[in-house]
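Subject: Sanity check before I submit

Could someone independently write out the structure tokens for this chain? I want to compare against mine line by line before I put it in a report. The sequence has 249 residues.
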Amino acid sequence: MSDDILSSLFDPPLTPSSASRSNSTSFLYDMALMSDNSVENDKIIEFSNTIIEKSSEIVESTIRNETITPEIQNIIASVHLQCELDLRMIAISARNAEYNPKKVNAVVMRLRDPKCTGLLFRSGRLMITGARLENDARLGGKKMAKICQKSGFPKVKFTNFKMENIIATADCKFPIRLEGLAYDHRDFCNYEPELFPGLVYRYHPDNSPTKAVLLLFVSGKVIVTGCKNYQEICNVFDNIYPVLCQYRK
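---
Independent answer below. Compare away.
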């Protein structure tokens, strides 16, 4: 990468020996040695060192981006059971169910295997949360549907399984200047450190239907939410990572 940059900035070398070299750093030092002006020598050497430093930072950022992958922390999915339910009867029949209409008008059903929690509404809608894999969320929904069938609702059917939201986290491995990011990307950011220590970044590029919300912290921790599959999360993080590298402390 540095060879292309330097070849576009400088004219061809004056001597055949320097022209035959493929290393741009050696070429810069050759220019410094050929020059009689010591001030010019210092400037050329300083510029070459700057190019080397910037190139190494770009390579390092690329390597880090290849090794950093978002990790799913929570999956929210929905299911429709195609049947109206008596929540009080389900709460009495099932051992792993709780029903407190004063707090929430839904039955809270918890499973150990797979580990997830379901909110069962009177209309037959089931919201599943707490799973880290799509298959676990689907399996948990099927088990909850069977519990409803055994509780006196044989018409219950497991239909319309849909991923509603995925929450994932990642670590950039370097601190971020949130003030500069919030100023330069003010149209997409909301940063009020007096109320919340994180920066809220609303990701919605014009050329993509993907929408996501990112929480960015000074430590380099990133929370991605709003996506409906893991590939979208990876795409969002891959697109935002080069931006975060520009505001690295």
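---
OP: Matches mine. For the report I'm noting this point. Strands lie at 71-80, 97-99, 107-111, 116-120, 125-131, 159-171, 189-190, 199-203, 212-216, 221-227.
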